[in-house]
Design brief:
Layout: E1 2-3, H1 18-38, E2 44-47, H2 53-63, E3 68-75, E4 85-90, H3 93-101, E5 108-114, H4 119-147, H5 151-160, H6 172-177, H7 179-195, H8 201-210, H9 224-229
Parallel strand pairs: 1-2, 2-3, 4-5
Antiparallel strand pairs: 3-4
Helix pairs in contact: 1-2, 1-7, 4-5, 4-7, 4-8, 7-8
Length: 237
C-alpha cells in the first residue's frame, strides 16, 4: 500500500508562503501519483491530506488503472490520553479494510464514509469551512477590540455565548501557529465551494487573513498580543 505523505512547500526566500505551499503540494501530489502509476503499482494508494474532492479524483485518475485509491480525512487532535482521532475513509470495501487494518487496536478510530471517492475529503472541507473560518474570525474580532481597548469586554460578552471560540483569546496563538497549513486548506475549501456552485468568498478571505500569520509556523508560545498585532495592516508579513 502506498500512503501519500503530507507535503509542505518553501518559498524562494526560505520562508513558507500560503500560495507556495498550496502550489508545491499540488504539483508534488500529482508527481507522486504519476510516478506510482508509471511503476505499475497495483496496490492500495491512500491520500489522507486535507484536499478538495475534485483533487482526490484527479489523483485517482493518475493512479488508475491497476491500483485501488482510498480517499481519507483525519479529524481531531493527535491521539493521546482521553482523546481519539478519527480517520474517515472512502473507496472500495477491500481497499478500506486494508487501510483500516493498519490501525487495529490503536487510538485512531476508522470510520467508513462510503464508496464514492471524494466523499471523505468533502466531509473534511465542510468541517474546515466552519472550524478554521470561525477561529480566524475570532482573531479579527479580538484584534479590533484590542485596537479600541475593549478586549476584556468582548471576552466577557463572548463568555455568555454557548460557543467558546470567541471567549478564549488565549487559543489564538495556536491558530497563528497552524496558519501556514490552514490557509492552503481554506484554498481547497474555496475550490470545493466553487465546484458546488456555492459562494467561496468567506473561505478565500479566511485564507488571506491566515496569510498574515504564515511566518509563525508551529510557534505555539507566541504572545496573544503579538498575534493580534500581526493582523493589522499586514504587519505579520
Amino acid at each position: 500500500m502506498y500512503r501519500c505523505p503530507v507535503l509542505n512547500g518553501e518559498s524562494e526566500t526560505g520562508g513558507t508562503s500560503v500560495r507556495s505551499v498550496a502550489a508545491v503540494a499540488e504539483r508534488q501530489r500529482i508527481m507522486v501519483a504519476a510516478a506510482v502509476a508509471a511503476h505499475g503499482f497495483a496496490g492500495v494508494y491512500a491520500d489522507v491530506n486535507a484536499i478538495s474532492p475534485q483533487r482526490v479524483r484527479h489523483i485517482a485518475d493518475e493512479i488508475r488503472p491497476g491500483s485501488a485509491v482510498v480517499d481519507g480525512a483525519v479529524f481531531g487532535q493527535p491521539p493521546g490520553e482521553g482523546r481519539a482521532t478519527r480517520l474517515y475513509l472512502a473507496g472500495a470495501d477491500s481497499a478500506i479494510e486494508l487501510v483500516a487494518s493498519l490501525f487495529t487496536d490503536s487510538a485512531l478510530h476508522v470510520c467508513r464514509v462510503g464508496d464514492t471517492l471524494g466523499s471523505a475529503s468533502a466531509l473534511k472541507m465542510a468541517f474546515a469551512s466552519y472550524q478554521k473560518a470561525a477561529r480566524t474570525l475570532a482573531g479579527i474580532a479580538h484584534a479590533l477590540a484590542d485596537t479600541h481597548g475593549v478586549g476584556d469586554q468582548l471576552t466577557a460578552e463572548a463568555e455568555i455565548m454557548i460557543s467558546a471560540i470567541l471567549s478564549d483569546p488565549e487559543y489564538l496563538p495556536s491558530v497563528a501557529a497552524r496558519a501556514w497549513r490552514w490557509a492552503p486548506e481554506m484554498e481547497e475549501v474555496a475550490d470545493t465551494l466553487r465546484a458546488a456552485d456555492l459562494p467561496a468568498d468567506m473561505a478565500e478571505a479566511t485564507a488571506r487573513v491566515l496569510a498574515h500569520w504564515e511566518q509563525n509556523r508551529d510557534q505555539y508560545d507566541l504572545p496573544v498580543g503579538l498575534a493580534l498585532s500581526q493582523l493589522r495592516s499586514g504587519k505579520g508579513r
